[in-house]
Amino acid sequence: MDKLPKIALPVIIGFILVIILISKSAITINSGEAGVLYKTFGGGVVTDEPPLGEGFQIVAPWNKVFIYEVRQQEVFEKMNVLSSNGLDIKLDASVWFEPKREFLGKLHQEKGEQYAQRVLLPAIRSAARSVVGRYTPEQLYSSKRDAIQHEIFEESKKIVEDQYIQLNDILVRDVTLPPTIKEAIERKLKQEQESLEYEFRLVTAQKEAEKVRIEAQGKADANQILSASLTDKILQDKGIDATIKLSESPNSKIIVIGSGDSGLPLILGNQ
What confidence category does residue 230 fall into, taking pLDDT thresholds of 50, 70 and 90? Predict the structure, then answer.
């Protein structure tokens, strides 16, 4: 077997080095991610250029790329806060957020990869303590759930808006009160509901009684008007008309003349 030419060995070594270099320089950024470039010999974190996008990227082997998820993310947070009267309230919330893509380099440089734990969640805890402290346990349990959710979101958003984080929404999943307080509130709400039902039945009965009274008054007024209009002359005329119609009937009958000047005939028949 002939010996390899002297140039072959350096070529093979060079080829191997190129492969190693490419493998160290090639980076694949997945869907929903972006990369922050760190130049070891060029000033550190790149903040004045857009982050590296999805797909296959080639960087110098001595540089580094830090991968961030830039799609919407969710974290769950359980908090202990105090109500306006000092009672301990447990609050469960879901937080929807994402890093601001155009400031990803700044976020990495100033906050780091743990930015959610270092910046976002402390801001939400602070806002929740501030908001919940304005309400009583009864308000938190019943009517003000949507209000506190909106207020916590707005206050948290103000805190993180200049921290390169985009806060999309905060959802309050559960508000847990001390058992004794919860039972007292439920009893009170039940009593209020029963009171409202009683008032409704009372108003309904009053309306029904008023309706019957109006109908009775209407009938009485109608009868009074009718009685006032039925004079003796009118009654006599109507009696005469009825007698004439009956006398014209083919059925056999007996006519009895009433007594007095204005007496009306009485007609008796076998049919």
Answer: low
